[in-house]
Design a protein that fits this description.
heterodimer; A: alpha+beta; ten-stranded antiparallel beta sheet; 10 strands; B: 366 residues; alpha+beta; PH-domain like; rod-shaped
Chain lengths: 365, 366
Amino acid sequence: MSDIIEVAPAAPQPDRLSISGSGGSLLGIHLIGLLLSMITLGIYRFWWRTNVRRYLWSCVSYKDEPFEYTGRGLELFIGFLIAFFFILLPLGGVYFLGIMLVQSGQFLLGAAIAGGIYVGFFVLYGAAIYRVMFYRISRTRWRGIRGALGGSAWSYAFKFFGLSLLQIVTLGFATPYVSTRLYGYVIGNIRFGSGRFRCDPDWKPLFKYYLIPGIIRVIGIVLIAIGAIVMFTNMPARGDIGGSIPMEIMMGSAVYSVGFLILGISVIAMFWYTAALYRVLAAASEFEGVRFTARVRGGQYALFVIVNWLMIVFTLGIAFPWVQLRILRFVADALDIHGEPDFEKVLQSTADTPKFGEGLGEVFL
Amino acid sequence: MQASFRGTYNDGRTAVAHGCAVTLLADALSLQLDSGAALWWPYGTLTLVSDDRAAGRVVVAPDAASDERLRVVGDGALEALTSAVPRLSGHRTTRGFGRSAMVAAAIVAVLAAFWFGYPVIKDGLVAVFPPSWSDRIGREMTADQALFGEPCTGAAGLAALDDLTRRLSANAGLPEPVRVHVRSSDQVNAFAATGGHVVLLNGLIRQAKTSDEVAGVLAHEIGHVKHRHPLKRLIDVAGIQVFVSAISGDVGAVGTTLLMLNYGRRHEAQADRTALDLMGGAGIDVGGLADFFDRMEENTRNRGTFIPFLETHPPLAERSAAIRAHSGNGSVAPALTNNEWQALREVCAGARKPSLQVLPRPLTSS
């Protein structure tokens, strides 16, 4: 109103996604899907998944306009059949051949074949993850404009393979680097129409969040290994278990159990890391001038996930639809969207779209 | 009813939202864009993209392949549109009483089909199941020496047992011959596997006070063989695995476990009834089986870990009461002579004990 009050222009209120929808309706979709899957020996599950996604996507709105899922059950079904018959069965056959060779005495050749198939599956797993996201994003629309995922599944798959090896070699301590690289690649390749996301997250601020759960996890695994070794080396010969259990075995099993307990604690401690990862990813993302902030704290995220678990466990899974909506609401509440793109310049997508569904993802994930 | 609304139009070429006025004509939607252009979408190809009844929001496209969208928000917009184009109300995300009724009917139909159809399928499978497979599975189920101990070979004891088995199964009308094995484990237990293989554990023979008690347990296991319970149980377990993996979720597992519990109890009661008939036919006092159950019940009560609901067997006290109600007709003689009984008690002399000791649990069946 007055020039005196407007000393500094107030920062514009950030946008949020808004979530509608009811758990009851979603439960109905799940129940129908479950029943029809039962009587069709599981084939209906592709249509079940499609119906659930169509509902969930329509529950999310940006600027009061809902997202749309345009995938179809038949696409998922055909994708599954292709992956099963042209990838899984041939690879499985070759693996079986390798095992037969090992058993018939051709050890080196057989082991090389079987080992090669193992590595092949590992790489394919990464490709499967990417193809799943490729399909889902290409079947997502907003205001009639299609999403798309650029990049390449193979490029992601080899990154996934190499970075996973790095993670193993570093006893997990490369996790912040690995997850920022992988997520950054995916987010940075998302397109909406002609507009593109960019994402270049820095792993260094995440490292301190990983340190505590990482160390706890290593301690847990070491204790489990020690306990197991002590138990096995002191196992009495077959047939002579007397009245009492040897002291060494009791000690070993105690160490083993404590190891698992500590591993459980590391899972909890990881929530703080995961929340920090979301903050870093959001802050590093940009879409045609639009910036993002994730306002999620570790304790809040831990509570959120634990409540989800409890809801599912204590209702024997019936609360699952409500948990799905809770997840959408959590994301919508936490994600601030700063500014808006010039919608005039966001043109319809000309990117390739996959003909068929998630394929390998149906087999692996 | 209102026939005109404000709406938002997307042309499918850019992500811009255009304000527009929407009018429901006789056979088409008319869109008057604020920029001045006019569009005409025939009802014949109009496609519902999504609707949210709570928010009163509808999104439609001129046809299924189009990138264009129209969003209408407001009281009565959805109702006016669906009354103009009834086809639109059949969309998946619509809901209401009709849909709930359909869900309920579908649930009832599937449960009924499963409930009545499954036993028929199972009986068919049992009838065509090759005896050689039954036999091989039975041998493998009973082979484990670490769990059950070595086979017992006392010749006189085994001869007495075989004779008792022959007398009990003489007029039983068994689908396959019974082969009884004794194993050295100290567990108080006996079970029937497929192919007519029945295993008595030495612990049970040692725990029994009279040969009538062993005869009762043996008759019970022969009852399982008569009704082919082990094979039925096997088909149940395999069926559950197919079922659970088919729906690729764990939701079904809880219900089917309860179902198995029910079958388990029914099978035990059925085997008990057959045992009474067989013992009556062989002239053996059924009181022996009741005594044995009573003593087992006392033991489990003393251990204090008995959870009646979760047991697959009916409560032991109930079973022994049912047996006693049946006893007292016809002349009876001890199941085995004194010499035979002593030989049976020593049948496991020299057989090596199993290396694994599982907590004894009275009388599991198959």
